[in-house]
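It is worth pausing here to work through a concrete case rather than discussing structure prediction in the abstract. The textbook approach is simple: state the sequence, then state the predicted structure, then interpret. We follow exactly that order.
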Amino acid sequence: MMVGNPTPRPYWTPDAPVVRLTEQERTSYREQIRELVAGASLTFTWLIRQLSDEGLMTDKYEMSATLSGVRTGDKADEILRRSLDILHRYQMRMGSCGEP
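Step two, the predicted structure:
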């Protein structure tokens, strides 16, 4: 017999209506994310932390499943969108402070 109250599991709900990505867009986003992370010598742990800082909670398992195409849906699409946005912002900031 269980005693006490179970901890409620936090489910993700979008802040605004989510426009679903097409399969072609998902594939493109996944490839770009992998290339940008590797090209900037970043880690997916860093990217997961950036998503968390923006209020989108995920973990390495969900990130891996999203990037491999196993996980799809509103949250997976939002992870892809925001990840690419974060990486583009990072690239803009780093590009503007390094080279003449």
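Step three, interpretation. The two ends are 67 Å apart (CA to CA). The first helix runs from residue 23 to 39.
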